[in-house]
């Protein structure tokens, strides 16, 4: 059975952007990504680790990676270190032989990151198809502002 959740109001007009709308978009998109990742034995959290290392040029200081991933996932430093350790044990990352404080992508990690990215690209294209570039730009700005403000609230709370 397939369940569909819409983001329109009872009048048929688009629903306003609110936490529920953001959550519905996030979880639907994440479910699509996790479907691809699961076929390769990769978790969502590990994919975030691989993305961060790739964005850093394939090599990054371990503590900086933990901070980056924790900033994305809000999972806590201990949980992020556990994911990092699992990713190393899986052979997708390794400690740099010359500088033990650094981790780097292995060939297997790079190949898996590229393969899952290639598999998700057409799905992403279908999801975003037909949405005007101006709407995407506005949504991007609004979501960046929401994230900035939520992160500020988290900082105040801690």
How would you sum up this structure, described in words?
By secondary structure, the protein is mainly alpha-helical. 66% of the residues lie in helices and 6% in strands. The protein is built from 6 helices and 3 strands, in the order ααβααββαα. Strand 2 and strand 3 (102-105) form a beta hairpin. The termini are far apart.
Identify the overall geometry.
globular
Provide the succession of SSEs. Answer: HHEHHEEHH
Rg over C-alpha atoms, rounded to the nearest angstrom: 18 Å
Strand content: 5-15%
Major β-sheet strand ordering: 1-3-2
The beta-strand count equals 3
DSSP helical segment count: 6
**Alpha carbon gap, first and last residue:** 42 Å
Indicate the low-confidence ranges by residue numbers.
Answer: none
Q: Give the helix proportion (percent range).
A: 55-70%
Mean pLDDT: 92
Which structural class fits the helix and strand makeup?
mainly alpha
Taking the sheet with the most strands, its summary is: 3 strands, antiparallel
Structural descriptors:
mainly alpha, 66% helix, 158 residues, 6% strand, three-stranded antiparallel β-sheet
Short description:
This protein has 158 residues and is mostly helical.
Topology readout:
Elements (H helix, E strand, L loop, with lengths): L18 H21 L4 H12 L3 E3 H12 L3 H13 L3 E3 L6 E4 L1 H22 L4 H25 L1
Antiparallel strand pairs: 1-3, 2-3
């Amino acid at each position: 059975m397939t369940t569909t959740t819409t983001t329109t109001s009872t009048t048929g007009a688009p629903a306003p952007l609110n936490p529920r709308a953001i959550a519905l978009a996030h979880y639907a998109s994440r479910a699509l990504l996790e479907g691809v990742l699961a076929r390769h034995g990769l978790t969502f959290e590990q994919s975030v680790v691989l993305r961060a290392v790739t964005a850093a040029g394939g090599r990054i200081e371990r503590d900086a990676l933990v901070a980056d991933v924790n900033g994305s996932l809000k999972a806590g430093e201990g949980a992020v270190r556990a994911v990092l350790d699992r990713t190393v044990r899986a052979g997708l990352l390794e400690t740099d032989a010359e500088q033990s404080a650094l981790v780097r992508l292995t060939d297997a990690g790079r190949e898996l990151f590229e393969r899952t990215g290639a598999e998700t690209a057409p799905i992403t294209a279908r999801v975003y198809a037909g949405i005007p570039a101006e709407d995407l730009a506005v949504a991007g700005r609004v979501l960046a502002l929401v994230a900035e403000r939520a992160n500020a609230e988290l900082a105040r709370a801690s």
